Each structure stands twice: as structure tokens, then as C-alpha cells.
Amino acid sequence: MKKMTSIFAALMLLVTSAYAIDEARLTAALNGPDRADEDKARDAARQPVEVLSFLGLEEGMTAMDIMASGGWYTEVLSHAVGSEGTVLMQNSPRSLGMRNTEEAVQARLADNRLPNVQRVNADMSDLGVEPNSVDFALTALNFHDLYNNSPEAAQAMLLAVKDALKPGGILGVIDHRGNEGADNAALHRITQEEIEQALFDAGYESVAASDLLEAEDDPRTTGPFDASLGRNTDRILLRAYKPEM
To answer: What sequence ranges are listed for the domain Methyltransferase type (predicted)?
Structure first.
């Protein structure tokens, strides 16, 4: 049984539904012939179906992929929310010029293959997303770089996302777990406590964690791209909510 622990027990919101999405339908879609084999190869480590169930995503939602880069999770979210939902694929203009990101995005969206995806090419400081319009947001494997470079910038990002979320909207955070006291900036990692505190400071509540992406064989002493890890790092998985009021 997967463990779910309360971080702020006084604020913990119980989730009563067993599955927020149709897991069988999403699994079939992700295994379909239209999805790239390279993307499918990451599923075993990333467990997207189980992760999105834990986070509480539902079909028909408006979801935002924060700092989406080439859009691996954008495509997963596109299948998950279905034809009645919308996915906002957010990248800063600067990031689109790095590491062939723009080319990767264009290839992923070519021929209108993900018709429910809308690009948001904007900085977090000026998203242009209607306040209180997003049901679900996700930042996957990138919060550490923002936080380690500037905790203030990370806080501004969390506040911008909170502004876009509807009251009661969900924010999911996935990141590479670091060891307390280590040079996590150099290792491209972060501690769970640092993320929790940043969420608390930004006014999110009901923060809960899952060990779904735990990798016990990762000593957390090398960077995520170290060949010995096979891209399977020990990962933090957190769910938080924008307050209802």
C-alpha cells in the first residue's frame, strides 16, 4: 500500500474518491501507437497514471504544465483531461531558445495531434492567464533549479500559479530529492522540507506527500543525469491546494 503522509496535519484535506481519473483509459492512451517510444520508456520511473490519481486530476479540468520544456507531461495531461479538458503548456520565451526546446515543442504538437493543448509562452511574472481559471497545475522536475538559483523567484512563481488557480485548485510538485546539508544546487536536487516551506510561505494548504516515486537505490549524492541512476532518481511528490477562501 502506498503511503500518504500529512505534512501540515491541521490543514489536511481528505480525498474521498479512490481514483480521480479513469486509470484504465489513461493507461491505454499512453500505450497507444501515436505516443513516442522514447516517452513511453520513461513511464516506469515516472508512473504518470498513479501520480495523477494521487494528485487528484479529473477529466475535463483545465490543467497547466509549469515550465513544461519539451512537454513530456503536457502530453500525459492532454490524454488525462480528455477532449473536454484543456492543457496550458507554459514555457518562458527564454527557455524556448535553450536545448532545442522550441523544436521539441513544435514536434510534439505537430499536425494538431494534441488539440486540447494551448501554448502559454510567457514568464511567470506576466502569464496572461485569467485569475481563478485553472483547476490543476503541475511542476515536474524543475522547481529545484528555480529555488536553488533564487528562493525569491521560486516564491513569485508559486504566487503566480496560486493566482491562476481556482479556489480549491490543486498544485502538484515533483522533484529530485536531495540530502539535508548537501550541495543540492550543484546536484540539481532539493529537500522536501524546502518545498514544503515554500508552499506554506506562498499560502498553500493541505500539503500531502506520497512515496510513490521513492527510489531506495538512489543515494542522492549524484546529479539526476548520472548514468548509474538510469534517470530513476528518488523523487518528492507533493499535493497542495489553493485555499477555498
So the answer is: 98-171
